[in-house]
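Changelog entry

Holo records now carry the ligand SMILES as an explicit input line rather than a separate metadata file. Below, a converted record for zinc ion, shown in the new format.
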Amino acid sequence: MKRVFAVLFAMLLLIAAAAAETVVTSFYPVYLFTLNLCEGLDGVTVVNLAAPDFGCLHDYQLTVADMKVLSRADVFVINGADMEEYLAHVRGSLDLRTVDASGMGTDRSVALIREEDGETEFNPHIWLSVPNAKIMVCNIADGLTEAMPQHADAIAANRDAYLCRLDALDAELRGRSDALGRREIVTFHEAFPYFAEAYGLRVVAVMATEPGEALSARELMDLVREERSLAEELGYPPPLFVEPQYTGRAADAISAETGAAVFRLDPCVTGPADPPLTYYEDVMLQNMTVLEEACGGDR
Ligand SMILES: [Zn+2]
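Structure line, unchanged by the conversion:
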């Protein structure tokens, strides 16, 4: 009898193992959304492909280890909107079920902002507006449901609960951004146009479009000149916003020359490997606290 149970138990384990699903995400923001949707799903593992400290995927190259992870994926969730350019090179060699969170090219697409002089057609930093994040969550939920129909009810419940939290986040961000005294910001990476559009800010200059790009003395002087002319136009030097993922040396140099204050906005592309489910909300609220400090005062 004992033996029969042992055999049955072993068979159950095998069935459980066979039913296990691996969801791979391309990078951090999509990882955060997918973790929320897969919370509590039996046998479903979410794996983030890019290291949690890698940042945006603008120059990402797939490694052999990445290809192995992808070959075992039941579904691959990407940001879309030109963020995962590397996929163009492996499309033919990988048989992969891909879910594009941006919905680009479908009637469920986020409203994309064109890049002015970037290397891609659209600006890919879509997740930094909460209305866009909600569309992404719905698109990911649809893709996951198609790939794992046995979890449809749980995914739908997770989606609805998360959308409620994102609505509350959006309302709070709108309320607090309405009360900001000033609207003009200068950034160092083309990451914030969607955020600015959603919350009534104006990105008056992007000082360097490539992350981590080293600037020559001459380029730095050009940026100082630009900040000075903005200060003249606005009547004050607009605050400079660096990101935790990139060095702030150029900002410090411009600040020393112009008196502009330096602050830090987080585009939520890096974070702990095992983040709390509220991590995206936490980062967005912290960004608003920084903006209040930088742009507060009477309108
Ligand atoms: Zn970026």
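Spot-checked after migration. The beta strands are 21-25, 44-48, 75-78, 98-100, 184-187, 202-206, 240-242, 262-264. The chain has two domains: 2-172, 181-295.
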